[in-house]
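chain below, 412 aa
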Amino acid sequence: MYTPTAHGALPRDVRVVRDLAAQVADFARSDECEVRRARWRAANGCRRADRAPVWCRPAAVWEEILPPTALVTANALCRQVEYVLRQHLYKIWVGDDHIVEPWWGVNAVFRCDRPHPWGLPVQQSLGTTPQGGFSYHHPLQAPADYEKICLPSFAYDREASERAAAEMQDLLGDVLPIRLVGTPPLGPHQNTYIEQLRGMMGLMEDMAFEPALVHAAMATFTEAVLRAQRVAEAAGVLTPNHHEPMFCSDPLPGSPSPGPARLRHLWVAANSQEFDLVSPDMQDEFLLSYQRVILQQYGAVQYGCCESLTTKTAIVRRLPNLRIFVCSFWSDLDRILEACGTSCTIMWRQAAAQVTVNATLDEHRQHLDAGLKRLRGHYYQIVLRELQTLHGRPERLRDWARLAIALAEKHA
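prediction:
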């Protein structure tokens, strides 16, 4: 039972959080949530479902939907938990194929041997705008700075992990059981790591004029990720993640139940956004050749994000264990359909601006209807992500979900 004095929370805060948790738990155990899980599992298993899954990720829009003034608890931990629970409840209200499990995950804690993994601070902002624009200072200002990149090491902090789990068990355990969940502290995001250090302009120039430096950096990132993977596996805290939206699927072959998982039992997502304008050959040389080493460790791979992969279908299809091919709004859907056939699932991404800027959804309706006609006979998801504003219209996502679901049913 939760003891308020242990964490400095008032009994009222505890009651609020537990009430919200009970609402989420009820939905997680509901028949409707199980229907949604089955729909995701079918789509991601290349099986026929009643219709394609429909899902949106509010992203920056959470600042409009759930501003700090919407939270009623005072204790810091309770506010964090309240925020997440209210996010789930909003998505349940939206009515897309949002799913949630009847338990609360606490992330395993990994410590790095340095304040900044690569030995240099990244994401140091040079300024932001009220609309969310930003500019970063990139620490690799010249090719000679590449030698400053360090190889980090990670260690599992069992004491901190167990302490965090115990704290949440104290707060939520009899409403939402607690599970310690683990993923490696680094992933197959070498494209992001190098852009954060060097910047887009510098990266483009260096691939052309200093290719050896780029290769050396990518090799360092790859070695660091492999080390982080081994640490996480050795700690015995990796947990299957096939219950999450977009990834939701049948358990991957050999998944332990119960018991610690290995990387081959997990899904992983990677992309090449920073390489959008790079040729297929250069992307294969400078990025995919390194990502492939990491991706082959996992049981299932989702690849792509907001970049266009129209001219890169061949190199992406060669990735090991590819299960989901992301077709962004800027990709040629017909080219993606031709490349994927029915051998993997297509995540068909929508344009956020088309949904949020226009006064009505009429233009988007036409876009959805035309695309879903072409997607017939394929396995796919309909996903709307990277939203920056709803212009004060929180109901817009609910309207979008209803529209997308109706059209998905029409073209099932």
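The radius of gyration is 22 Å. The longest strand covers residues 322-327.
thats it, cya
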